[in-house]
Protein backbone atom coordinates (compact mmCIF):
# COMPACT_ATOMS: atom_id res chain seq x y z
CA UNK A 1 0.00 0.00 0.00
CA UNK A 2 2.85 2.35 -0.86
CA UNK A 3 2.59 5.40 -3.11
CA UNK A 4 4.95 7.01 -5.58
CA UNK A 5 5.25 10.30 -3.70
CA UNK A 6 6.52 8.58 -0.58
CA UNK A 7 4.50 11.01 1.56
CA UNK A 8 1.86 9.99 4.07
CA UNK A 9 -0.26 11.85 6.63
CA UNK A 10 -2.08 10.54 9.67
CA UNK A 11 -3.49 12.21 12.77
CA UNK A 12 -1.45 15.39 12.46
CA UNK A 13 1.80 13.56 11.61
CA UNK A 14 3.45 13.43 8.20
CA UNK A 15 6.01 10.96 6.88
CA UNK A 16 8.41 11.70 4.05
CA UNK A 17 9.94 8.41 2.92
CA UNK A 18 12.48 10.09 0.63
CA UNK A 19 13.76 12.48 3.30
CA UNK A 20 13.33 9.71 5.90
CA UNK A 21 11.56 12.06 8.30
CA UNK A 22 8.58 11.87 10.64
CA UNK A 23 7.14 15.38 11.06
CA UNK A 24 4.79 16.64 13.77
CA UNK A 25 1.76 18.91 13.27
CA UNK A 26 3.99 21.98 13.13
CA UNK A 27 6.18 20.43 10.45
CA UNK A 28 9.11 19.82 12.81
CA UNK A 29 11.07 16.56 12.43
CA UNK A 30 10.85 14.11 15.30
CA UNK A 31 13.99 12.19 16.36
CA UNK A 32 13.98 8.56 15.20
CA UNK A 33 16.71 6.01 14.69
CA UNK A 34 17.13 4.63 11.18
CA UNK A 35 15.78 1.22 12.21
CA UNK A 36 12.73 2.71 13.94
CA UNK A 37 11.95 4.67 10.77
CA UNK A 38 12.30 1.50 8.68
CA UNK A 39 9.87 -0.30 10.99
CA UNK A 40 7.40 2.59 10.66
CA UNK A 41 7.58 2.56 6.88
CA UNK A 42 7.08 -1.19 6.64
CA UNK A 43 4.06 -1.04 8.95
CA UNK A 44 2.52 1.86 7.01
CA UNK A 45 3.08 0.19 3.64
CA UNK A 46 1.49 -3.04 4.94
CA UNK A 47 -1.21 -1.46 7.08
CA UNK A 48 -3.89 -3.67 5.53
CA UNK A 49 -2.75 -6.60 7.71
CA UNK A 50 -0.93 -7.71 10.83
CA UNK A 51 2.81 -7.80 10.13
CA UNK A 52 4.64 -10.66 11.82
CA UNK A 53 7.67 -9.99 14.01
CA UNK A 54 9.84 -12.34 11.94
CA UNK A 55 8.90 -10.47 8.78
CA UNK A 56 9.75 -7.10 10.34
CA UNK A 57 13.12 -8.29 11.63
CA UNK A 58 14.00 -9.89 8.30
CA UNK A 59 13.10 -6.69 6.41
CA UNK A 60 14.64 -4.10 8.73
CA UNK A 61 17.73 -6.06 9.83
CA UNK A 62 18.22 -7.95 6.54
CA UNK A 63 21.10 -10.42 6.69
CA UNK A 64 21.77 -9.84 10.37
CA UNK A 65 20.91 -12.00 13.37
CA UNK A 66 19.11 -9.85 15.93
CA UNK A 67 16.99 -10.50 18.97
CA UNK A 68 13.32 -9.65 19.25
CA UNK A 69 14.29 -7.01 21.81
CA UNK A 70 15.74 -4.90 18.97
CA UNK A 71 12.32 -4.79 17.34
CA UNK A 72 10.61 -4.05 20.66
CA UNK A 73 12.94 -1.08 21.20
CA UNK A 74 12.18 0.28 17.72
CA UNK A 75 8.45 0.06 18.31
CA UNK A 76 8.86 1.72 21.73
CA UNK A 77 10.77 4.56 20.05
CA UNK A 78 7.93 5.05 17.59
CA UNK A 79 5.36 5.16 20.37
CA UNK A 80 7.43 7.75 22.23
CA UNK A 81 7.58 9.86 19.07
CA UNK A 82 3.79 9.64 18.78
CA UNK A 83 3.43 10.62 22.44
CA UNK A 84 1.88 7.28 23.43
CA UNK A 85 2.88 4.53 25.84
CA UNK A 86 3.18 0.76 25.64
CA UNK A 87 -0.47 0.21 26.51
CA UNK A 88 -1.77 2.86 24.13
CA UNK A 89 -2.79 1.33 20.78
CA UNK A 90 -3.68 4.54 18.93
CA UNK A 91 -1.19 4.08 16.10
CA UNK A 92 0.52 0.71 16.45
CA UNK A 93 -1.32 -2.24 17.95
CA UNK A 94 0.53 -5.21 19.38
CA UNK A 95 -1.20 -8.47 18.47
CA UNK A 96 0.05 -11.07 20.97
CA UNK A 97 1.53 -14.09 19.26
CA UNK A 98 1.42 -12.44 15.83
CA UNK A 99 3.13 -9.06 15.48
CA UNK A 100 2.06 -5.47 14.92
CA UNK A 101 -0.46 -3.53 12.87
CA UNK A 102 -0.53 0.15 11.97
CA UNK A 103 -4.13 1.24 12.62
CA UNK A 104 -4.24 5.00 12.00
CA UNK A 105 -6.07 5.97 8.83
CA UNK A 106 -3.39 7.12 6.38
CA UNK A 107 -3.77 9.70 3.65
CA UNK A 108 -1.20 8.77 1.01
CA UNK A 109 0.30 11.14 -1.54
CA UNK A 110 -0.34 14.31 0.46
CA UNK A 111 1.08 17.58 -0.74
CA UNK A 112 4.12 18.86 1.11
CA UNK A 113 2.49 22.11 2.21
CA UNK A 114 4.38 24.09 4.83
CA UNK A 115 2.39 25.01 7.95
CA UNK A 116 2.35 28.68 7.01
CA UNK A 117 0.25 27.90 3.94
CA UNK A 118 -2.53 26.00 5.71
CA UNK A 119 -6.01 27.55 6.03
CA UNK A 120 -6.65 30.03 8.83
CA UNK A 121 -8.26 28.58 11.94
CA UNK A 122 -9.47 31.73 13.60
CA UNK A 123 -11.10 34.87 12.43
CA UNK A 124 -7.74 36.54 13.03
CA UNK A 125 -4.48 34.83 12.19
CA UNK A 126 -4.24 31.39 13.82
CA UNK A 127 -2.90 28.76 11.44
CA UNK A 128 -2.15 25.07 11.66
CA UNK A 129 -0.65 22.20 9.73
CA UNK A 130 -2.91 19.62 11.36
CA UNK A 131 -4.16 17.35 8.62
CA UNK A 132 -6.11 15.02 10.85
CA UNK A 133 -8.61 12.50 9.81
CA UNK A 134 -8.73 10.50 13.09
CA UNK A 135 -11.24 7.93 11.93
CA UNK A 136 -9.54 4.75 13.06
CA UNK A 137 -7.41 6.29 15.80
CA UNK A 138 -10.43 7.65 17.67
CA UNK A 139 -11.77 4.11 17.81
CA UNK A 140 -8.66 2.99 19.60
CA UNK A 141 -8.60 6.03 21.88
CA UNK A 142 -12.23 5.53 22.86
CA UNK A 143 -11.91 1.81 23.56
CA UNK A 144 -8.51 0.36 22.77
CA UNK A 145 -9.51 -3.14 23.77
CA UNK A 146 -12.11 -3.30 21.02
CA UNK A 147 -9.61 -2.99 18.21
CA UNK A 148 -8.22 -6.55 18.19
CA UNK A 149 -11.62 -7.77 17.07
CA UNK A 150 -11.01 -6.11 13.73
CA UNK A 151 -7.27 -6.43 13.25
CA UNK A 152 -7.49 -9.48 11.04
CA UNK A 153 -10.07 -8.00 8.66
CA UNK A 154 -8.56 -6.47 5.51
CA UNK A 155 -9.04 -2.76 5.03
CA UNK A 156 -11.86 -1.89 2.62
CA UNK A 157 -10.83 -1.70 -1.00
CA UNK A 158 -13.04 1.34 -1.59
CA UNK A 159 -12.62 3.55 1.45
CA UNK A 160 -14.31 6.97 1.41
CA UNK A 161 -12.09 9.64 -0.09
CA UNK A 162 -10.25 11.73 2.46
CA UNK A 163 -9.09 15.29 2.33
CA UNK A 164 -5.73 16.26 3.70
CA UNK A 165 -7.27 19.24 5.50
CA UNK A 166 -10.10 17.31 7.16
CA UNK A 167 -10.22 18.44 10.80
CA UNK A 168 -11.43 16.36 13.72
CA UNK A 169 -13.65 18.01 16.30
CA UNK A 170 -15.61 17.08 19.41
CA UNK A 171 -18.40 19.03 21.10
CA UNK A 172 -18.47 18.38 24.83
CA UNK A 173 -21.77 18.56 26.74
CA UNK A 174 -22.28 22.09 27.96
CA UNK A 175 -22.02 22.75 31.68
CA UNK A 176 -23.97 24.98 34.02
CA UNK A 177 -21.73 27.46 35.79
CA UNK A 178 -20.95 26.48 39.38
CA UNK A 179 -23.42 29.01 40.74
CA UNK A 180 -26.24 27.64 38.59
CA UNK A 181 -28.27 24.46 38.96
CA UNK A 182 -27.26 21.79 36.47
CA UNK A 183 -29.76 20.98 33.73
CA UNK A 184 -28.36 17.85 32.09
CA UNK A 185 -30.96 17.59 29.34
CA UNK A 186 -30.44 21.20 28.33
CA UNK A 187 -26.65 20.79 28.38
CA UNK A 188 -26.71 17.56 26.36
CA UNK A 189 -29.34 18.90 24.00
CA UNK A 190 -27.31 21.98 23.10
CA UNK A 191 -24.27 19.80 22.38
CA UNK A 192 -26.31 17.38 20.26
CA UNK A 193 -27.86 20.17 18.21
CA UNK A 194 -24.49 21.84 17.66
CA UNK A 195 -22.98 18.51 16.56
CA UNK A 196 -25.76 18.11 14.01
CA UNK A 197 -25.11 21.60 12.64
CA UNK A 198 -21.32 21.25 12.44
CA UNK A 199 -21.57 17.80 10.87
CA UNK A 200 -22.96 19.52 7.79
CA UNK A 201 -19.48 20.92 7.10
CA UNK A 202 -17.81 18.42 4.81
CA UNK A 203 -14.33 19.47 5.97
CA UNK A 204 -15.05 18.43 9.57
CA UNK A 205 -15.10 15.00 11.21
CA UNK A 206 -17.33 15.58 14.23
CA UNK A 207 -17.41 13.01 17.02
CA UNK A 208 -20.80 11.77 18.17
CA UNK A 209 -22.38 12.92 21.41
CA UNK A 210 -22.11 9.40 22.81
CA UNK A 211 -18.34 9.66 22.36
CA UNK A 212 -17.98 12.95 24.23
CA UNK A 213 -20.77 12.46 26.75
CA UNK A 214 -18.77 10.01 28.85
CA UNK A 215 -15.97 12.60 29.19
CA UNK A 216 -18.16 15.50 30.29
CA UNK A 217 -16.55 15.73 33.74
CA UNK A 218 -12.98 15.83 32.44
CA UNK A 219 -10.80 18.76 31.52
CA UNK A 220 -11.56 19.73 27.88
CA UNK A 221 -7.93 19.26 26.81
CA UNK A 222 -7.79 15.80 28.38
CA UNK A 223 -11.09 14.91 26.74
CA UNK A 224 -9.82 16.10 23.37
CA UNK A 225 -6.68 14.00 23.66
CA UNK A 226 -8.68 10.91 24.61
CA UNK A 227 -11.01 11.46 21.68
CA UNK A 228 -8.00 12.10 19.39
CA UNK A 229 -9.39 15.30 17.94
CA UNK A 230 -7.67 18.51 16.89
CA UNK A 231 -10.41 20.80 18.19
CA UNK A 232 -12.83 20.82 21.10
CA UNK A 233 -15.92 22.97 21.51
CA UNK A 234 -16.89 23.52 25.12
CA UNK A 235 -19.60 25.71 26.55
CA UNK A 236 -21.30 26.88 29.72
CA UNK A 237 -24.81 28.04 30.47
CA UNK A 238 -26.05 30.51 33.08
CA UNK A 239 -29.64 31.44 33.83
CA UNK A 240 -30.43 35.09 34.40
CA UNK A 241 -34.11 35.45 35.14
CA UNK A 242 -36.01 34.38 32.06
CA UNK A 243 -32.91 34.55 29.90
CA UNK A 244 -30.01 32.19 29.28
CA UNK A 245 -26.41 33.20 28.70
CA UNK A 246 -24.33 30.71 26.71
CA UNK A 247 -20.56 31.04 26.52
CA UNK A 248 -18.74 28.91 23.95
CA UNK A 249 -15.02 28.31 23.32
CA UNK A 250 -13.18 26.61 20.46
CA UNK A 251 -9.95 25.04 21.71
CA UNK A 252 -6.95 23.77 19.76
CA UNK A 253 -5.97 20.51 21.45
CA UNK A 254 -2.29 20.18 20.36
CA UNK A 255 -1.21 23.42 22.03
CA UNK A 256 -4.17 24.29 24.31
CA UNK A 257 -4.91 27.62 22.66
CA UNK A 258 -8.35 29.20 22.66
CA UNK A 259 -8.96 29.91 18.98
CA UNK A 260 -12.32 31.60 19.41
CA UNK A 261 -14.79 32.47 22.15
CA UNK A 262 -18.23 34.00 22.10
CA UNK A 263 -21.13 34.81 24.42
CA UNK A 264 -24.77 34.61 23.41
CA UNK A 265 -27.95 35.70 25.21
CA UNK A 266 -31.46 34.49 24.46
CA UNK A 267 -34.81 33.86 26.09
CA UNK A 268 -34.57 30.57 27.96
CA UNK A 269 -37.32 28.96 25.88
CA UNK A 270 -35.53 30.03 22.69
CA UNK A 271 -32.02 28.96 23.62
CA UNK A 272 -31.81 26.33 20.85
CA UNK A 273 -32.32 29.07 18.29
CA UNK A 274 -28.74 30.07 19.09
CA UNK A 275 -27.32 26.90 17.59
CA UNK A 276 -27.16 28.18 14.01
CA UNK A 277 -25.28 31.29 15.15
CA UNK A 278 -22.88 29.27 17.31
CA UNK A 279 -22.27 26.70 14.57
CA UNK A 280 -21.53 29.38 11.99
CA UNK A 281 -19.17 31.17 14.38
CA UNK A 282 -17.24 27.96 15.11
CA UNK A 283 -17.13 27.05 11.43
CA UNK A 284 -15.94 30.55 10.58
CA UNK A 285 -13.07 30.19 13.05
CA UNK A 286 -12.12 26.97 11.28
CA UNK A 287 -12.61 28.55 7.83
CA UNK A 288 -15.08 25.87 6.82
CA UNK A 289 -18.62 26.35 5.68
CA UNK A 290 -21.71 24.84 7.29
CA UNK A 291 -24.14 24.03 4.51
CA UNK A 292 -27.71 24.48 5.64
CA UNK A 293 -29.75 21.69 4.14
CA UNK A 294 -33.44 22.00 3.51
CA UNK A 295 -34.27 20.09 6.68
CA UNK A 296 -37.69 20.22 8.22
CA UNK A 297 -38.03 21.63 11.72
CA UNK A 298 -40.83 21.20 14.24
CA UNK A 299 -41.41 22.58 17.76
CA UNK A 300 -39.70 19.55 19.40
CA UNK A 301 -36.45 20.53 17.68
CA UNK A 302 -36.07 23.25 20.32
CA UNK A 303 -38.78 25.85 19.91
CA UNK A 304 -40.94 23.95 22.39
CA UNK A 305 -38.46 23.28 25.18
CA UNK A 306 -40.78 20.92 27.07
CA UNK A 307 -41.31 18.79 23.97
CA UNK A 308 -37.58 18.82 23.27
CA UNK A 309 -36.82 17.74 26.83
CA UNK A 310 -39.27 14.87 26.55
CA UNK A 311 -37.65 13.79 23.27
CA UNK A 312 -34.16 13.90 24.79
CA UNK A 313 -35.30 11.89 27.82
CA UNK A 314 -36.31 9.07 25.49
CA UNK A 315 -33.44 9.49 23.04
CA UNK A 316 -30.62 9.04 25.56
CA UNK A 317 -31.96 5.70 26.78
CA UNK A 318 -31.11 4.06 23.45
CA UNK A 319 -27.37 3.88 24.17
CA UNK A 320 -27.76 2.26 27.63
CA UNK A 321 -31.16 0.55 27.73
CA UNK A 322 -32.63 -1.45 30.59
CA UNK A 323 -36.14 -2.82 31.00
CA UNK A 324 -37.01 -0.05 33.47
CA UNK A 325 -35.43 2.73 31.39
CA UNK A 326 -37.21 1.58 28.24
CA UNK A 327 -40.60 1.99 29.92
CA UNK A 328 -39.66 5.48 31.11
CA UNK A 329 -38.34 6.37 27.66
CA UNK A 330 -41.51 5.18 25.92
CA UNK A 331 -43.57 7.42 28.21
CA UNK A 332 -41.26 10.40 27.56
CA UNK A 333 -41.45 9.99 23.78
CA UNK A 334 -45.21 9.67 23.98
CA UNK A 335 -45.22 12.95 25.89
CA UNK A 336 -43.07 14.60 23.21
CA UNK A 337 -45.47 13.48 20.50
CA UNK A 338 -48.44 14.67 22.56
CA UNK A 339 -46.87 18.11 22.88
CA UNK A 340 -45.77 18.16 19.23
CA UNK A 341 -47.61 15.70 16.94
CA UNK A 342 -45.27 16.72 14.11
CA UNK A 343 -42.14 15.57 15.99
CA UNK A 344 -40.69 13.18 13.42
CA UNK A 345 -37.61 12.42 15.52
CA UNK A 346 -39.70 11.24 18.46
CA UNK A 347 -41.59 8.83 16.20
CA UNK A 348 -38.34 7.45 14.76
CA UNK A 349 -36.69 7.01 18.15
CA UNK A 350 -39.81 5.39 19.58
CA UNK A 351 -39.71 2.89 16.72
CA UNK A 352 -36.11 2.01 17.60
CA UNK A 353 -37.02 1.79 21.27
CA UNK A 354 -39.79 -0.70 20.52
CA UNK A 355 -37.30 -2.83 18.64
CA UNK A 356 -34.97 -2.79 21.64
CA UNK A 357 -37.84 -3.97 23.80
CA UNK A 358 -37.94 -7.13 21.70
CA UNK A 359 -34.38 -7.92 22.79
CA UNK A 360 -34.72 -7.05 26.47
CA UNK A 361 -38.29 -8.12 27.21
CA UNK A 362 -40.82 -10.71 26.07
CA UNK A 363 -43.22 -8.77 23.87
CA UNK A 364 -45.24 -10.26 21.06
CA UNK A 365 -42.97 -9.43 18.10
CA UNK A 366 -45.90 -9.07 15.71
CA UNK A 367 -47.47 -6.36 17.83
CA UNK A 368 -44.18 -4.59 18.53
CA UNK A 369 -43.18 -4.59 14.87
CA UNK A 370 -46.58 -3.25 13.82
CA UNK A 371 -46.33 -0.39 16.33
CA UNK A 372 -42.76 0.35 15.27
CA UNK A 373 -43.72 0.24 11.57
CA UNK A 374 -46.50 2.78 12.19
CA UNK A 375 -44.00 5.09 13.90
CA UNK A 376 -41.54 4.72 11.02
CA UNK A 377 -44.18 5.54 8.41
CA UNK A 378 -45.32 8.58 10.38
CA UNK A 379 -41.75 9.79 10.85
CA UNK A 380 -40.97 9.52 7.12
CA UNK A 381 -44.26 11.16 6.24
CA UNK A 382 -43.24 14.11 8.41
CA UNK A 383 -39.56 14.13 7.38
CA UNK A 384 -38.46 12.00 4.38
CA UNK A 385 -34.79 12.84 5.13
CA UNK A 386 -34.68 11.47 8.68
CA UNK A 387 -31.86 8.92 9.00
CA UNK A 388 -33.14 7.47 12.28
CA UNK A 389 -36.39 6.51 10.56
CA UNK A 390 -34.55 4.62 7.82
CA UNK A 391 -32.52 2.80 10.47
CA UNK A 392 -35.69 1.62 12.19
CA UNK A 393 -37.25 0.68 8.86
CA UNK A 394 -34.23 -1.43 7.93
CA UNK A 395 -34.25 -3.24 11.26
CA UNK A 396 -37.95 -4.03 10.85
CA UNK A 397 -37.41 -5.23 7.30
CA UNK A 398 -34.78 -7.73 8.41
CA UNK A 399 -36.36 -8.58 11.77
CA UNK A 400 -40.01 -9.01 10.80
CA UNK A 401 -40.08 -9.37 7.04
CA UNK A 402 -36.77 -11.31 6.90
CA UNK A 403 -35.76 -9.24 3.89
CA UNK A 404 -32.07 -8.41 4.08
CA UNK A 405 -32.09 -6.85 0.60
CA UNK A 406 -34.66 -4.21 1.50
CA UNK A 407 -33.05 -3.71 4.91
CA UNK A 408 -29.67 -2.97 3.34
CA UNK A 409 -31.30 -0.47 0.98
CA UNK A 410 -32.87 1.34 3.94
CA UNK A 411 -29.60 1.43 5.85
CA UNK A 412 -27.76 2.62 2.75
CA UNK A 413 -30.23 5.50 2.55
CA UNK A 414 -29.65 6.27 6.22
CA UNK A 415 -25.91 6.44 5.55
CA UNK A 416 -26.49 8.84 2.66
CA UNK A 417 -28.38 11.12 5.03
CA UNK A 418 -26.09 10.80 8.05
CA UNK A 419 -22.76 9.14 7.22
CA UNK A 420 -21.25 10.46 10.44
CA UNK A 421 -23.64 8.63 12.75
CA UNK A 422 -22.20 5.83 14.88
CA UNK A 423 -25.66 4.36 15.42
CA UNK A 424 -26.34 4.16 11.66
CA UNK A 425 -23.10 2.25 11.05
CA UNK A 426 -23.81 -0.03 14.02
CA UNK A 427 -27.29 -0.82 12.69
CA UNK A 428 -25.87 -1.53 9.25
CA UNK A 429 -23.37 -3.91 10.88
CA UNK A 430 -26.25 -5.67 12.64
CA UNK A 431 -28.13 -6.20 9.36
CA UNK A 432 -25.02 -7.40 7.53
CA UNK A 433 -24.10 -9.80 10.33
CA UNK A 434 -27.62 -11.24 10.26
CA UNK A 435 -27.17 -11.88 6.53
CA UNK A 436 -23.85 -13.63 7.21
CA UNK A 437 -21.58 -10.98 5.69
CA UNK A 438 -19.20 -10.63 8.56
CA UNK A 439 -16.42 -8.77 6.75
CA UNK A 440 -18.66 -5.90 5.67
CA UNK A 441 -20.33 -5.93 9.07
CA UNK A 442 -16.92 -5.59 10.73
CA UNK A 443 -16.13 -2.57 8.56
CA UNK A 444 -19.27 -0.72 9.64
CA UNK A 445 -18.84 -1.73 13.27
CA UNK A 446 -15.29 -0.35 13.08
CA UNK A 447 -16.59 2.90 11.64
CA UNK A 448 -19.21 3.08 14.37
CA UNK A 449 -16.49 2.77 16.98
CA UNK A 450 -14.51 5.55 15.30
CA UNK A 451 -17.45 7.91 15.50
CA UNK A 452 -18.49 6.96 19.01
CA UNK A 453 -17.85 4.24 21.57
CA UNK A 454 -19.70 1.01 21.00
CA UNK A 455 -22.74 0.24 23.09
CA UNK A 456 -22.57 -2.91 25.23
CA UNK A 457 -24.45 -4.70 22.46
CA UNK A 458 -21.92 -3.59 19.84
CA UNK A 459 -19.13 -4.75 22.13
CA UNK A 460 -20.72 -8.19 22.30
CA UNK A 461 -20.79 -8.40 18.50
CA UNK A 462 -17.10 -7.50 18.42
CA UNK A 463 -16.33 -10.08 21.10
CA UNK A 464 -18.22 -12.78 19.19
CA UNK A 465 -16.06 -12.16 16.09
CA UNK A 466 -12.88 -12.01 18.12
CA UNK A 467 -13.67 -15.33 19.82
CA UNK A 468 -13.22 -17.14 16.51
CA UNK A 469 -9.65 -15.85 16.31
CA UNK A 470 -8.49 -15.39 19.89
CA UNK A 471 -10.78 -16.77 22.63
CA UNK A 472 -8.59 -15.41 25.43
CA UNK A 473 -8.72 -11.85 24.07
CA UNK A 474 -12.48 -12.15 23.48
CA UNK A 475 -13.02 -13.19 27.07
CA UNK A 476 -10.92 -10.25 28.25
CA UNK A 477 -13.08 -7.93 26.14
CA UNK A 478 -16.23 -9.39 27.64
CA UNK A 479 -14.78 -8.98 31.13
CA UNK A 480 -14.15 -5.31 30.36
CA UNK A 481 -17.78 -4.98 29.28
CA UNK A 482 -18.96 -6.44 32.57
CA UNK A 483 -16.67 -4.06 34.47
CA UNK A 484 -18.37 -1.14 32.72
CA UNK A 485 -21.88 -2.64 32.99
CA UNK A 486 -21.91 -4.97 36.03
CA UNK A 487 -24.57 -7.65 35.76
CA UNK A 488 -25.28 -6.94 32.08
CA UNK A 489 -27.19 -10.10 31.30
CA UNK A 490 -26.41 -10.24 27.59
CA UNK A 491 -22.70 -10.38 28.47
CA UNK A 492 -23.27 -13.05 31.11
CA UNK A 493 -25.30 -15.03 28.59
CA UNK A 494 -22.46 -14.86 26.05
CA UNK A 495 -19.78 -15.74 28.57
CA UNK A 496 -21.82 -18.75 29.69
CA UNK A 497 -22.04 -20.04 26.11
CA UNK A 498 -18.25 -19.93 25.79
CA UNK A 499 -17.80 -21.62 29.15
CA UNK A 500 -20.23 -24.39 28.15
CA UNK A 501 -18.41 -24.95 24.86
CA UNK A 502 -15.15 -25.31 26.79
CA UNK A 503 -16.71 -27.80 29.21
CA UNK A 504 -16.76 -25.41 32.19
CA UNK A 505 -20.33 -26.25 33.06
CA UNK A 506 -20.38 -25.02 36.67
CA UNK A 507 -19.18 -21.57 35.54
CA UNK A 508 -21.72 -21.50 32.73
CA UNK A 509 -24.56 -22.43 35.08
CA UNK A 510 -23.54 -19.71 37.56
CA UNK A 511 -23.50 -17.05 34.82
CA UNK A 512 -26.81 -18.19 33.36
CA UNK A 513 -28.55 -18.26 36.71
CA UNK A 514 -27.41 -14.69 37.33
CA UNK A 515 -28.42 -13.67 33.79
CA UNK A 516 -31.85 -15.22 34.38
CA UNK A 517 -32.31 -13.11 37.51
CA UNK A 518 -31.05 -9.92 35.88
CA UNK A 519 -33.18 -10.36 32.75
CA UNK A 520 -36.43 -11.04 34.59
CA UNK A 521 -36.11 -14.73 33.64
CA UNK A 522 -36.01 -14.10 29.91
CA UNK A 523 -36.96 -17.33 28.14
CA UNK A 524 -33.93 -17.26 25.85
CA UNK A 525 -31.66 -17.30 28.89
CA UNK A 526 -33.76 -20.06 30.45
CA UNK A 527 -33.43 -22.21 27.33
CA UNK A 528 -29.63 -21.79 27.42
CA UNK A 529 -29.70 -22.73 31.09
CA UNK A 530 -31.80 -25.82 30.33
CA UNK A 531 -29.31 -26.80 27.63
CA UNK A 532 -26.43 -26.42 30.08
CA UNK A 533 -28.28 -28.41 32.75
CA UNK A 534 -28.63 -31.24 30.23
CA UNK A 535 -24.91 -31.09 29.46
CA UNK A 536 -24.28 -31.31 33.23
CA UNK A 537 -26.61 -34.33 33.44
CA UNK A 538 -29.23 -32.51 35.47
CA UNK A 539 -32.37 -33.23 33.37
CA UNK A 540 -34.76 -32.65 36.28
CA UNK A 541 -33.66 -29.01 36.48
CA UNK A 542 -34.10 -28.63 32.71
CA UNK A 543 -37.64 -30.06 32.97
CA UNK A 544 -38.47 -27.58 35.73
CA UNK A 545 -37.48 -24.72 33.42
CA UNK A 546 -39.57 -26.23 30.63
CA UNK A 547 -42.60 -26.34 32.90
CA UNK A 548 -42.03 -22.71 33.89
CA UNK A 549 -41.89 -21.60 30.24
CA UNK A 550 -44.92 -23.71 29.27
CA UNK A 551 -46.93 -22.09 32.06
CA UNK A 552 -45.85 -18.62 30.98
CA UNK A 553 -46.68 -19.34 27.33
CA UNK A 554 -50.23 -20.26 28.33
CA UNK A 555 -50.58 -16.85 29.98
CA UNK A 556 -48.67 -14.63 27.57
CA UNK A 557 -45.79 -14.41 25.14
CA UNK A 558 -42.67 -16.57 25.43
CA UNK A 559 -40.11 -16.92 22.64
CA UNK A 560 -41.14 -20.11 20.78
CA UNK A 561 -37.54 -20.73 19.75
CA UNK A 562 -36.58 -20.90 23.43
CA UNK A 563 -39.17 -23.58 24.07
CA UNK A 564 -38.12 -25.42 20.91
CA UNK A 565 -34.52 -25.61 22.17
CA UNK A 566 -35.63 -26.90 25.56
CA UNK A 567 -37.90 -29.58 24.08
CA UNK A 568 -35.10 -30.58 21.71
CA UNK A 569 -32.60 -30.91 24.54
CA UNK A 570 -35.04 -33.17 26.41
CA UNK A 571 -35.50 -35.37 23.33
CA UNK A 572 -39.06 -34.28 22.52
CA UNK A 573 -38.70 -33.66 18.77
CA UNK A 574 -42.42 -33.42 18.05
CA UNK A 575 -42.99 -30.58 20.50
CA UNK A 576 -39.75 -28.94 19.36
CA UNK A 577 -41.11 -28.88 15.79
CA UNK A 578 -44.43 -27.47 17.05
CA UNK A 579 -42.56 -24.55 18.63
CA UNK A 580 -40.34 -24.03 15.59
CA UNK A 581 -43.43 -23.73 13.40
CA UNK A 582 -44.92 -21.33 15.92
CA UNK A 583 -41.69 -19.33 15.84
CA UNK A 584 -41.97 -19.04 12.08
CA UNK A 585 -45.56 -17.83 12.33
CA UNK A 586 -44.58 -15.24 14.93
CA UNK A 587 -41.57 -14.12 12.86
CA UNK A 588 -38.89 -15.16 15.33
CA UNK A 589 -35.69 -14.13 13.51
CA UNK A 590 -33.69 -16.77 15.37
CA UNK A 591 -34.96 -19.45 13.03
CA UNK A 592 -34.18 -17.61 9.80
CA UNK A 593 -32.10 -19.86 7.50
CA UNK A 594 -33.11 -22.73 9.76
CA UNK A 595 -31.86 -25.41 7.40
CA UNK A 596 -28.28 -24.12 7.66
CA UNK A 597 -28.20 -24.35 11.45
CA UNK A 598 -26.18 -27.43 12.52
CA UNK A 599 -27.71 -27.32 16.00
CA UNK A 600 -30.88 -29.03 14.70
CA UNK A 601 -28.96 -31.83 13.00
CA UNK A 602 -31.14 -34.53 14.54
CA UNK A 603 -34.15 -33.07 12.74
CA UNK A 604 -32.56 -32.50 9.33
CA UNK A 605 -34.07 -35.69 7.87
CA UNK A 606 -37.52 -35.00 9.33
CA UNK A 607 -40.06 -34.05 6.57
CA UNK A 608 -41.74 -31.43 8.83
CA UNK A 609 -38.38 -29.80 9.51
CA UNK A 610 -37.44 -29.86 5.83
CA UNK A 611 -40.72 -28.21 4.85
CA UNK A 612 -40.25 -25.52 7.48
CA UNK A 613 -36.62 -24.96 6.48
CA UNK A 614 -37.69 -24.24 2.89
CA UNK A 615 -39.90 -21.42 4.17
CA UNK A 616 -37.71 -20.06 6.97
CA UNK A 617 -35.18 -18.34 4.71
CA UNK A 618 -33.80 -14.82 4.94
CA UNK A 619 -34.40 -12.96 1.68
CA UNK A 620 -31.25 -11.61 0.13
CA UNK A 621 -30.09 -10.89 -3.39
CA UNK A 622 -26.63 -12.06 -2.37
CA UNK A 623 -25.48 -15.39 -1.00
CA UNK A 624 -25.65 -15.61 2.76
CA UNK A 625 -22.32 -17.38 2.96
CA UNK A 626 -19.59 -15.34 4.65
CA UNK A 627 -17.28 -13.38 2.42
Tell me about this structure:
With 627 residues, this protein is of the alpha+beta class. Helices cover 50% and strands 10% of the residues. It has 25 helices and 13 strands. The chain has helices spanning 34-45, 53-60, 68-82, 137-142, 184-198, 209-213, 220-227, 275-285, 305-315, 323-339, 344-360, 365-382, 387-399, 404-417, 422-434, 438-451, 456-469, 471-484, 489-501, 505-518, 523-535, 539-555, 560-569, 573-585, 607-615, and strands at 7-10, 13-16, 21-23, 51-52, 92-95, 99-102, 107-108, 167-171, 175-176, 204-206, 231-240, 243-252, 257-267. Strands 8, 9, 10, 11, 12 and 13 form a 6-stranded mixed β-sheet that branches. A 4-stranded antiparallel β-sheet has the order 3-2-1-7, with no helix packed on it. Strands 4-6-5 form a 3-stranded antiparallel β-sheet. A hairpin with a 4-residue loop joins β12 (243-252) and β13.
Output the number of helix runs.
25
Which structural class do you get from the secondary structure elements?
A: alpha+beta
* Main sheet summary: 6 strands, mixed
Percent of residues in beta strands: 5-15%
Q: Mean pLDDT, nearest integer?
A: 79
What best-fitting shape do the alpha-carbon axes yield? Answer: globular
- How many E strands? 13
Q: Helicity level, as a percent range?
A: 40-55%
For the terminal residues, how far apart are their CA atoms? 22 Å
Low-confidence stretches: 109-165, 622-627
What is the radius of gyration computed over CA atoms, rounded to a whole number of angstroms?
A: 26 Å
